[in-house]
Amino acid sequence: MRREPVAAVARRAAVRVRWDRVGRVGLLVTLAIVVCLYIQPTLSILKTWREERRQASVVQQLIRSNATLERRVKSLNNPATIIADARTLGMVRSGEKPYVILGMR
After folding, report:
1. 52-81 burial: b if 16+ Cβ within 10 Å, else e
2. Residue 28: which H helix or E strand, with range?
3. Residue 33: what pLDDT?
4. Which one of 43-47, 78-82, 99-103 scores highest in mean pLDDT?
5. What would you report as the CA-atom Rg of the chain, rounded to the nearest whole angstrom?
6. Distance between CA atoms of residues 72 and 65, nearest Å
7. For residue 58, how far is the Cα from the chain centroid?
8. CA-CA distance, 59 to 9, in Å (whole number)?
9. What is the pLDDT confidence band of residue 50, given thresholds at 50, 70 and 90?
10. Computed from CA positions of residues 9, 10, 16, 22, in that sequence, does the dihedral angle turn out positive or negative?
11. Mean pLDDT of 24-51
12. What is the pLDDT of residue 9?
């Protein structure tokens, strides 16, 4: 029986492919690609969530403003308010005598 030289055995061992390592590297590359694919949608979701929170605060502010304006409309439709505003503008009712008081401050 003939023994092979040590150099030939070493060369053949160096040429062998370590499929377990290739498999691991392939899985790691696949995992990295999958993680990269999830980054953009995740950032988009976070951006949308922040925008929703900002819009919700704007809606609440507009609701409060609308309530204030509704109260103002109700007040302005009140006959007593209409009369008071007309008097501040210097208007008088028909049949009334207008008086102007000078020299008062």
Report:
1. eeeeeeeeeeeeeeeeeeeeeeeeeeeeee
2. helix 19-76
3. 96
4. 43-47
5. 43
6. 11
7. 11
8. 78
9. very high
10. positive
11. 96
12. 65
pLDDT tens, position by position, 54-90: 999 999 999 999 999 999 999 999 999 999 999 899 8
Q: How many Cα atoms sit within 13 Å of 20 on the Cβ side?
A: 0
For 95, the token pair is 């049949």
Q: Which residues contact 81 (CB under 8 A, 6 or more apart)?
A: 75
All residues at 6 or more sequence positions from 76 whose CB lies less than 8 Å from its CB, including other chains? 82
Question: Which pair of structure tokens corresponds to residue 42?
Answer: 């995740």
Which residue carries 């925008």 as its tokens?
Answer: 51
Query: Is residue 13 predicted with pLDDT exceeding 80?
Result: no
- How buried is residue 42: exposed, middle or buried, by Cβ count under 10 Å (0-12/13-18/19+)? exposed
pLDDT > 90? residue 14 = no
